Amino acid sequence: MAGKSTALRDRLTAGTPAPPATRAGMPPLVRHLLLALAALAVIVALTFVVDPFTNVRLATVGYYLIAVAGLTLLTGFNGQVSLGHGAFMFIGAYTVALLVLHVPSLPFWADLLLAAAASGVAGTLAGAAAARLHGPYLAGATLALAVGLPAVTQRFPELLGGSNGLAFTVNSRPAALAGTIPTPQWQAWVVWTTVLLALVVLANLTRSRFGRTLRAVRDDEVSAELAGIHIGRTKILAFVLSAVCGGLAGGLQAFLLGTAAPGSFTPVLSLSLLAAMVLGGIGSMWGALWGALALVYFQAWSEDLTHALELGTDIANNLPLAVYGVVLIVVVLAFPQGIQGGVRALRTRLSRLRRTEEGHR
Amino acid sequence: MKRTTVLAAALAAALTLASCSGAGEQQTGDTADAGAAPGVTDTSVLIGTHQPLTGPAAPGYSRISVGARAMFDYINENGGINGRKIEYRVEDDGYNPTRTVEVVKKLVLQDQVFALLGGLGTPTHSKVIEFLNTEKVPDLLVSSGALMWDDPAKSPMTFGYQVDYTREGKIQGDWIKKNLAGKKVGLMFQNDDVGRDSQTGLDQFIAGQIVSRQGYDPANTDVVPQISALRDAGAEVIVCSCVPAYTALSILNAAKLGYRAQFVVSSIGADPATLTGLLQEFGKRGGTEVSAGQLLNGLVGTGYLPDVSRADDPWIKLLREVHQKYIPNEQLTNTVIFGMVQAFTFAQALKAAGRDLTRQKLVDAMSSGALEGPGLTPFGFTQQSHSGYTGAFVFKINPDTTTTEIQPPMVTDRATGPITPANLQRKTPQEINLFGGTS
């Protein structure tokens, strides 16, 4: 049996040489790294022209992006629904907070790696349980994670600060830059460097054999198993990777805002991440970017709107959420594949239009 | 596999470049100038605040900024302070510390507010206190009674407002010891500085009477386990160091369990009108009509501002006028009054800071010790102390939800000092003369 499935797997994967050639004729790793470098250059340039608070917002988009990207890998590529992704952000944030407060000699990149590792471990445990669950059961279990985990702070108020949480300042800026580069700008650089590196890893993984395995499990577990794919292992690995992304996001949030408190990691956060993923487009890493932008800017715009219109407090209080909900419904109705689906449709139509025009000439 | 190793190495290398020294607590090297005056023009001064307009603490507290805005409208209509109108920007943080940091950074970095007024909440405001002090933004009249706002050495720009939880706990403990001697006491408290600091005061007097201590987390609205535990421990008195929503939940759940106890509630959660609204709303959600008067009758609370029902008080007269003129559709509660008094007190400090305004001058005016206001106990503001109101009176709620003072205002310190009568000669609004004379 084992021999047979190996043979089948070999046959299934025989047609795809690794690494596969791409449009530009470059291996994907090089192409992704170059793309990430270009993106970083754009962002660094941007941080010089915008005001300090926009730098904070840029960094906020960054950490949401990596959290949503992790969720995209899990749900979009592997078909596992997680309603509890905020729990991994919680772990990441508290790991960074505790390290900054109690092991101040450690450099920040080490704090961040440890935060990622800690949520990876948690992701392994959660993933092992999740691999045995399907659909609503999985959703329920992950939601329980988001509801239950922040309560740990109540159990250890001395260490974790109870409902108050922890406050701290992360110093990561090299002394040479002090006074020349403002803190928010430096923070945006650090966040985006980390996020882009993590995205390179994710993009590469999803385009590799592992990515095909993920999708095979998502589309049809039985045939995937027949093809010799270890279902449980694949599912756990997907969970671990997305948990690591969540941990990184939480660690970066702690770095940016200098806080880790249970009130920040309510189930609402997990659900917002999920909504952002759906809004951006489930099947694509680009969707994560649109989702993260939506998370940050819909809130900001609707608040600016309420300030500008000077609405009554009761309306103003609930408008941001209402606007977000309406946009989500409209986008999903118009483009079931999310914003990225819309972008893709637009691109197809444009290229078709161009082709017909060329045909007429 | 090999590729993964390369990637990991690349990741590590890039992160190493990103940081070369330890990440621990350190000064960032940024300096701000307290002599500056952003947000100030010839005709206006922009101030900001963060409030829970949505989320778990919004019931009750979302009305504070409504009261403050009404008071600023009144002040602006009378020509403003030193010729400047006050622009008041309210940001919703949902009682979520992450949002608090975001909106406060927005207020300071983008909107360039001159000062922050009455930022609400201990778990929330504690996350921005360092940022505000680094940026040298006056952080006035924080809406919380935690002790940490009174630390002029570490946070020179931050000033408290409410009576701090330890002082209030001492006055409550002293009252319980005298009036409910020998009764078993159970504590219900918010599991953060609200609870911790309150118990520091309560324990000085009634440590021996306490039979059970139950904390709640503001993210979890199920308080049945805590109330059951208090009942099982035989507590005859429940001291609730809780925000309004949790005071109401505790009262409602005790009633549901058929558990009758004498409630003693901190000023942060003892506003009868707010509690009435909450009890009715929570009752409706649970599918029952509740009689708030019946549930609140006999509840003991502490306060430091004049109660809305004191019709003869000159300050209440003024506040009622402002209410009638600017927010007639809003119910006038002690919570709305909290915001109005806060705004009035800020205006006093702004006036004392003079026409030639800087952030440092505003802070100097706050710590001059000359601030007198509507409160029934004096402020503790000096160069050495940034403590807000320094004591409280004890009241009882009547069956018609009005209140009766049962112990006059007393003052004390945050350590183990004595509790003494406040004996405050309060100035009237006319004597304070907010709009007359230019300094």
Question: What keywords describe this structure?
Answer:
heterodimer, A: 361 residues, mainly alpha, ABC transporter involved in vitamin B12 uptake, BtuC, 2 strands, disordered N terminus, B: 439 residues, alpha/beta, Rossmann fold, 2 domains, signal (chain B)
Largest sheet of chain A: 2 strands, antiparallel
Find the structural class of chain A using helix and strand composition: mainly alpha
List how many beta strands of chain B DSSP finds. 15
| Regions with little confidence, pLDDT below 50 for 5+ residues of chain A | 1-22
Q: The biggest beta sheet of chain B, please?
A: 8 strands, mixed
According to CATH, the fold-level topology of chain A is ABC transporter involved in vitamin B12 uptake, BtuC
Helices and strands of chain A, in order, run as HHHHHHHHEHHHHEHHHH
Structure description:
With 361 residues, chain A is mainly alpha-helical. Helices cover 76% and strands 1% of the residues of chain A. Chain A has a single domain, classed as ABC transporter involved in vitamin B12 uptake, BtuC (Orthogonal Bundle). Chain A has helices at 2-14, 28-49, 52-77, 86-102, 108-130, 135-148, 152-155, 157-160, 183-207, 209-219, 221-226, 231-257, 267-280, 285-309, 313-334, 338-360, and strands at residues 166-167, 259-260. In chain A, helix 3 crosses helix 14 (285-309) and helix 10 crosses helix 12. Chain A is globular and about 70 Å long. The N and C termini of chain A lie far apart (60 Å). Chain B is α/β, with parallel strands linked by helices and 439 residues long. In chain B, 40% of the residues lie in helices and 18% in strands. Chain B has helices at 2-18, 58-61, 64-77, 97-110, 122-125, 129-134, 165-179, 193-206, 224-232, 244-256, 272-285, 292-296, 314-326, 334-353, 359-366, 429-432, and strands spanning 44-51, 85-92, 115-117, 139-142, 158-160, 185-190, 210-216, 237-241, 262-265, 300-303, 379-381, 386-389, 391-397, 403-411, 420-421. In chain B, strand 11 and strand 12 form a beta hairpin. The longest helix of chain B is centred in the C-terminal third of the chain and has 20 residues, at 334-353. Chain B starts with a helix and ends in a 7-residue tail after the last helix. The chains are: A mainly alpha (361), B alpha/beta (439). Chains A and B meet through helix 3, helix 4, helix 5, helix 9 and helix 15 of A and helix 1, strand 2, helix 4, helix 5 and helix 6 of B. Chain A: Pfam families: BPD_transp_2 (PF02653). Chain A: Residues 1-20 are annotated as: Disordered.
